[in-house]
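Annex B. Sample input.
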Amino acid sequence: MADIERTLVIVKPDGVQRGLTGEIVNRFERRGLKIVAMRFGTIDAALAKKHYAEHEGKPFYAGLVDYITSGPSLVMVLEGPKAIEITRSTVGSTRPWEAAPGTIRADYGLTVGRNLVHASDSVASGEREVGLFFEGEELPSWSRDTDRWVYDE
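Annex B, continued. Sample output.
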């Protein structure tokens, strides 16, 4: 079986406010990814600044922090073979008008500033981001009965 990866996904405040949380989670589960952790609430400014630290100093940085802290988000860790790549292809391009048909952003997004979902862009960023949002917590490893029908050996 391919190497199992973990990725951080955030259903951002616009996705929550629009009532798309269940639809978004459903797409990842139907795809075959497994939920390892999940938390719902408003992200505080200190955590948001750490999360977006790579963008500090850029003109859009303050807007990112304000946006992600503006209301509740659903933060989750997904797991599976090639989880990073599969998650990002399910989410679609950052620019919704460039996103492939059938992706979350193509189906529900119109602008970059309200693009519904964050997904880690590499294994390294996935590990860093999971550590930020679930610091010190043990994330369970578990097997679903259906895994043998989703993953090949």
